[in-house]
Design brief:
The chain has a two-stranded antiparallel sheet with strand order 1-2. The termini are far apart. It is elongated. 78% of the residues lie in helices and 2% in strands. It has 13 helices and 2 strands. Strand 1 and strand 2 form a beta hairpin. The protein is an all-alpha fold.
Length: 358
């Protein structure tokens, strides 16, 4: 049976306002639970997952309000205030677990929605074969972007003055970069479960929602990066670039001072410093470009190839010098041994003469 205006308005308020109210209540209950278990990481992480899923399913199956709005309200409260009930040692583990669960849930939603949409379109072939449906899909996509643009334009005076503010370039990226994904597909799956809606209408919903998601991912998703580079909403900070250059110059001076100190050290004075210098970074000639610094590094292989002759010559020279030193030491030892033998002979002769005199 068709609903009258009053009944439709009441049902809309039940879904929207009821979903928000239930989400706030679930968020408060979760907040109290987290405060009572501040020191237990496992309890806090489990509580967040349990309340998030329970808020959605209880809203849809028991309270008959919007589960999506309830879950979004819960998430907004946790991001604004509820996160402070988490122990500081729990934040990292909770983030890792929730991120993994969110990734798995998004993957399952996309997979299920794709299967349902394909099955519906194949079962009712007149949907895919009707050119008017494809034209309507394109119009829905254009209308989606236009409605988002109108919404951002109407709220722009407030957005420009609240929080960090917003420029027209940022607003353009917000309008164009609004992708459609898991939330829209989840709503389409909810429509699929409504037996009161005729199969043809459910198939049209699945067709248009999945089509809009695919178009937004293929068109907006692949070109938003290009638009960001063209608009350049955040210009380079010239003072940051200058400070970075100055810091690199100071770093290069310290490196050269330390290298000069090592050159005069007795342990390193015979090192091949030309070869060492070729392996060192030159920070003063680094070119700064925006937020990146390109420092030219001489290849170790090229440095070895360039100084291979001097290194090999040094090795051979040091080996020859060592051989000469060893030969000199051996000769000196032989001379010392000969002198010792002569001294021993003289001492024996003196001892014999003393004995004869006595």
């Amino acid at each position: 049976d068709s609903l009258g205006f009053g009944e439709a308005l009441g049902f809309f308020l039940q879904l929207s306002a009821g979903g928000i109210a239930w989400g706030l209540l679930a968020a408060l209950l979760l907040f109290l639970w987290l405060r009572q278990s501040y020191a237990d990481a496992f309890v806090q992480t489990t509580a967040i997952l349990v309340v998030a899923f329970a808020a959605f399913f209880l809203a849809e199956d028991v309270l008959h309000v919007s589960g999506v709005l309830a879950t979004v309200t819960l998430g907004l409260f946790m991001a604004y205030r509820g996160k402070y009930a988490l122990g500081h040692h729990v934040e990292h583990s909770n983030h890792a677990v929730v991120s993994e669960v969110a990734f798995a849930a998004n993957t399952m939603i996309f997979a299920l929605a794709g299967v349902v949409a394909y099955r519906r379109i194949v079962e009712l072939d007149e949907i895919a074969s009707d050119g008017a449906n494809w034209l309507d899909l394109c119009l829905v996509y254009v209308a989606m972007v236009a409605v988002r643009g109108v919404t951002v334009a109407l709220l722009f005076p407030f957005l420009a003055r609240l929080g960090y503010g917003m420029t027209w370039k940022e607003a353009s990226l917000v309008v164009y970069g609004g992708l459609r994904g898991a939330v829209g597909l989840a709503l389409a799956l909810l429509v699929e479960e409504e037996s009161d809606i005729d199969p043809h209408t459910r198939s049209l919903v699945a067709f248009h929602v999945s089509g809009v998601v695919v178009l937004s991912l293929l068109l907006n998703g692949t070109t938003t990066g290009w638009l960001y580079k063209k608009l350049r909403p955040y210009p380079d900070n010239r003072y940051q670039s200058r400070m970075l250059k100055h810091a690199l110059s100071l770093l290069e001076d310290r490196v050269q001072q330390f290298a000069a100190h090592l050159r005069h050290d007795w342990f390193f004075r015979h090192a091949q410093w030309d070869f060492v210098a070729a392996l060192m970074l030159d920070f003063k000639t680094g070119v700064t470009a925006g937020q990146t610094v390109d420092v030219e590094l001489t290849s170790v292989g090229r440095a070895f190839a360039k100084h291979a002759g001097s290194v090999a010559g040094s090795v051979h020279g040091r080996r020859d010098s060592a051989r000469k030193t060893l030969a000199t030491l051996q000769a000196q030892a032989a001379e010392s041994l000969s002198a010792l033998r002569e001294a021993r002979a003289d001492m024996e002769r003196v001892a014999t003469e003393v004995a004869v005199v006595q």
